[in-house]
Amino acid sequence: MSQKIGIWVNNKEIKPTAGAEATMINNRIYVPASIFRDAGFSVEYKKSKLTMINKNLLYIRNLDVLNAFHYTFINNFEKIDQEISNILGNLLLEKDVDTTKLSELVKTVDLDSNSFDNANFTPVGDYSSSFDFASASKSFNVYKEAIDLLKKYIEGGEKEQLEAFYAKRETALQYYALFTEEFDQVFKRSSLNAIK
After folding, report:
1. How far apart are CA 37 and CA 39, in angstroms?
2. Which residues on adjacent β-strands are paired with residue 7?
3. Which of 67, 93, 171, 177 is 20 to 30 A from 53 in CA distance terms?
4. CB within 8 Å of 180: residues ≥ 6 apart
């Protein structure tokens, strides 16, 4: 009579399909690779090589990549928007306006918008391996155009430039809202896949 061998991975029992149970032969336990697939591993056998990757770890790495991008791009984009509000307040109060801090933030976000680590991102849900947050770059590029218009207004005081600035800024913030919605979806899906 063969002894039933229970397989547990991360405190979760894996129920093997019929005919694919673990067996003991000569005091050694043999576990079919398909059991690992049932446990959430990616299992591939090619050219006499068995490769098993714990998908949970891949999605945990996604969370690291997403957190890094949040820390750099998202935080600094929001600092730019806050600085714009400060500048607009000073203009309204007819105070001196200094755009030095704004220019520094723009340089930082310019680098950050291209810092997404696509090479270490694992596809999740509807998002392909080419997922690169293109909407982040799009929102920032439009915002840069808006900032240029605001600086021209500060220098020349032409009302049309200020109106054009507001229109461009609104477009940039709409793109940014789409980006943050996409970012949140990918973060949630990666989180769910990391704990499966």
Report:
1. 5
2. 14
3. 67
4. 74
Maximum Cα interatomic distance, the chain, rounded to a whole number of Å: 92
> Is this prediction's pTM over 0.85?
no
Residues 154, 91: Cα–Cα separation, whole Å = 8
> What mean pLDDT do residues 118-141 have?
73
Judged against a pLDDT cut of 60, whether residue 101 lies above it is answered with yes
Whether the Cβ atoms of residue 115 and residue 74 lie closer than 8 Å to each other: no
Paired tokens of 96: 């001196």
Residue 126 pLDDT grade (very low, low, confident, very high; cuts 50, 70, 90):
low
Tokens of 62: 């996604």
Residue 2, pLDDT score: 60
Convert the pLDDT of each residue in 28-46 to its tens digit.
888 888 888 777 777 888 8
Token pair 């050694």 is found at 28
The answer to whether the beta carbons of residues 84 and 150 sit under 8 Å apart is yes
